[in-house]
Amino acid sequence: MKQIYLVDDDDDDRLLARQALESVAEEIEIVELTNGYQLLAVLEAAPSVEPAMVLMDMNMPLVNGIEALAALKSRDDWRHIPVVMFSTTENPKFVEKAYQLGVNAYIVKPASFEGYTRMAQAVTLCFLNRYMPRGGEFYTDNDIAKNIVIIEDNPDHAVLMKFLLKKNAPKLNVVFQTSQESAVSFFQSLGEKASAAIDLIILDLYLPDREQGLDLLVWLRSTFMERGIPAVPIIVLSASSHQRDIKASYGLQANAYLTKTAEPAESFSYLTDLCSYWSDTISLPANR
After folding, report:
1. Which of the residues bear the PTM 4-aspartylphosphate (predicted)?
2. Do 158 and 273 reside in the same domain of the chain?
């Protein structure tokens, strides 16, 4: 049973979010809270009980979403908890501020229950490791090809990923790197404009050791920050389901962590949906 802390002062929005989550995800427990103060108080009161994720509104009384996010990401014992902010505001300044503070994803509140279901599918895949096929073909808001970098040292997995992505999302421009060293060389060779054109990075944690994957995650974050480029979403896709690896990845600002299944083809069949969610459901900083 995975817990989701749903934090929103609007009763109707909480109801829609709860119904959507319960319609697509099994074995979840939703804890409803109405402001950031309650969220921080609950976490403080039961430090041994952690949610699988926090889904939080921005505009709330007492302690708003931005303030609660800042408090969560400033503490070593809470930094690894994934936080998805969903808000009515599309203001780029607020979106950028949320990512600067370490939010894992930002979603503009949908206008329909269908939109809430889409949001629930996205967070279920990205943060709960529950694979719920969306169905249909990959699509984006425009015809511009999306640029994806996949860092995967297992050649068999790389071949399978290439095949499925080419089959299901032919418009995607996918670049594969096979090691920490090759990935560093690739990104170092890019100029600022080319780096800013990357829409998503999918990173295998064990390259072949976890230290290499974690070091690369840190290097990528610092490199993009030094270049003044808005945060590129980094999704860790690993065979490890160990909490140590999951917490370490989130603590170092991975946007999401997905576990490969025993049958790789099953995990990789959802790469298309993963790319689609980060393209058309989740809002990113301006120029991203």
Report:
1. 57, 204
2. yes
Evaluate the omega torsion of the peptide bond into residue 155 and state whether it is cis, within 30 degrees of 0: no
Domain that holds residue 252: 147-280
Mind listing the pLDDT tens digit of every residue in the chain (288 residues)? Answer: 899 999 999 999 999 999 999 999 989 999 999 999 999 999 999 888 899 999 999 999 999 999 999 999 999 999 999 999 999 999 999 999 999 999 999 999 999 999 999 999 999 999 998 876 655 444 444 445 589 999 999 999 999 999 999 888 888 999 999 999 999 999 999 988 888 889 999 999 999 999 999 999 999 999 998 888 877 999 999 999 999 999 999 999 999 999 998 888 878 888 988 998 998 899 988 766
Neighbours of 15 (CB within 10 A): 14
**How many Å apart are CA 209 and CA 195, to the nearest integer?**
26
Instruction: Report yes or no on 56 lying in a domain.
Output: yes
Q: Dump the DSSP string for 70-88.
A: HHHHTSTTTTTS-EEEEES
Q: What are phi and psi of 172, to 5 degrees?
A: -70, 140
- Locate 148 and state its tokens: 């994806």
Q: Hunting for tokens 């690369």 — which residue is that? A: 216
How many domains does the chain fold into?
A: 2
CATH number at residue 29: 3.40.50.2300
User: CA 94, 112, 55: angle at the middle one, nearest 5?
Assistant: 45
